[in-house]
Amino acid sequence: MGTARTAIVTGAARGIGAAVATRLAADGLAVAVIDLDAADCGPVVASIEAGGGRALAVGADVADEPAVAAAVEQVTAELGPPTVLVNNAGIIRDNLLFKMTVADWDAVMAVHLRGAFLMARAVQGHMREAGFGRIVNLSSTSALGNRGQANYSAAKAGLQGFTKTLAIELGRFGVTANTVAPGFIETEMTHATAARMGVSFEDFTRVASEQIPVGRIGQPEDIAHTVSFLVSEGAGFVSGQVIYVAGGPKD
Ligand code: NAP
After folding, report:
1. Count of Cβ atoms closer than 10 Å to residue 189 Cβ
2. Which atom, in ligand 1's list, is nearest to the CA of 11?
C-alpha cells in the first residue's frame, strides 16, 4: 500500500466539515482540519486520532491570502502534500436586498468565493505534481435562489461556475473538481436560521421535512458520504458536476 493521500477540509471544526473530515479519515486519508481557530478543531482531530486516523488542526481564515499559504505549507510539512481539497468553510449574513449591507455582501463573497479560490490556487501545484487531485466545493440549493440570501445564493452559484472552470483547466493533470450542493442539513448554521426566524428547530424541521421528497432533513453524514465518493480513486471520470444532495431533485 502506498502512502495515504492528504486531504484539506476547511471549516471543519463543526457541522458538515467535521463530518467530511471524519469520513475522509475513516476512508484512510490523512486530514488537515482547518477552521478560523485551531483550538476549535481539537475535538475533531482527537476523535479522528482515537479512531486510528491521522489528522492535524490548523487555524486559518480561508479569505486571508498569507494565512492560506501558511496553512498549506504547514499541512505539506506535517501530513504530506495535499491532493484532496474540500472547500466547505461558509457563513451566512442573510437579509432582504433592501436591508443588506455592503459589509454583509463582501463577507459572504470573501469566505465562499475568495476562500475557495485561494485554497484551490494554493494546492493545485501539489495536485499537478502528483498527477492526481480531487477538489470538492460546497454549494447549496440556495444557488437556485432563496429569499433573504442574495449574497449567499450569488456566492453559491458562483462556486458552481468556478468548479466547472477548474475541471476544464486541471483535468489534464488527473484533477477532478465537483460541487456538492446540500439542501437542508442539520448544523449550527440551520439552528441559527431557525432562531433568527423566531421558530423552534423542531417546528422548522417539521415544516421543511414536509417539502422534502424523502421526508426528512439531511444530516452532515449525508454530505460526507457524497464527498467521500467524489474524492475516491475510482471517481476520476466524474468532473465539473453539481450534485444536489437534498432528498429530492433540484435543478
Ligand atoms: P457551520 O456549522 O456554520 O460550519 C461552518 C464552519 O466554517 C464553522 O466552523 C466556521 O467557523 C467555519 N468558517 C467560517 N468562516 C471561515 C473562514 N473564513 N475560514 C475558515 N473557516 C471558516 O456550517 P455548515 O452548516 O456545516 O455548512 C458547511 C458548508 O455547507 C458551508 O459552505 C455552507 O454554506 C454549506 N451548506 C450548508 C447547508 C446546511 O443546511 N447546513 C446547506 C447548504 C450548504 P466559526 O464557527 O468559528 O465561524
Report:
1. 15
2. 7
104: in domain: yes
Question: Is 155 contained in some domain?
Answer: yes
For residue range 192-210, list pLDDT tens digits in order.
989 988 999 999 999 999 9
Q: Phi and psi (nearest 5°) for 33?
A: -100, 105
Is the predicted pLDDT of residue 3 greater than 90, yes or no? Answer: no
Closest CA to 217 of 197, 179, 251, 187: 187
Read off the amino acid at residue 166.
L
Q: What is the DSSP letter of 112?
A: I
Please tell me whether residues 197 and 89 are part of one structural domain.
no
Backbone angles phi, psi at 85, to 5 degrees: -130, 125
Beta carbon of 140 within 6 Å of any ligand 1 atom = yes
What tens digit of pLDDT does each residue of 114-135 get? 999 999 999 999 999 999 999 9
Residue labelled with grid coordinates 500500500: 1
| pLDDT digit string, tens, across residues 84-111 | 999 999 999 999 999 999 999 999 999 9
Give CA–CA dist 20/189, Å, rounded: 16
Q: What does the pLDDT look like over 45-56, one tens digit per residue?
A: 999 999 999 999
Q: Is the pTM of this model over 0.90?
A: yes
Q: Is the CB of 179 under 6 A from ligand 1?
A: no
Answer yes or no: is the C-beta of 185 below 6 A from any ligand 1 atom: yes
* 170 shares its domain with 203: no
Residue 15 Cα to ligand 1 middle (Å): 7
Rounded to the nearest integer, the mean pLDDT of the chain is 97
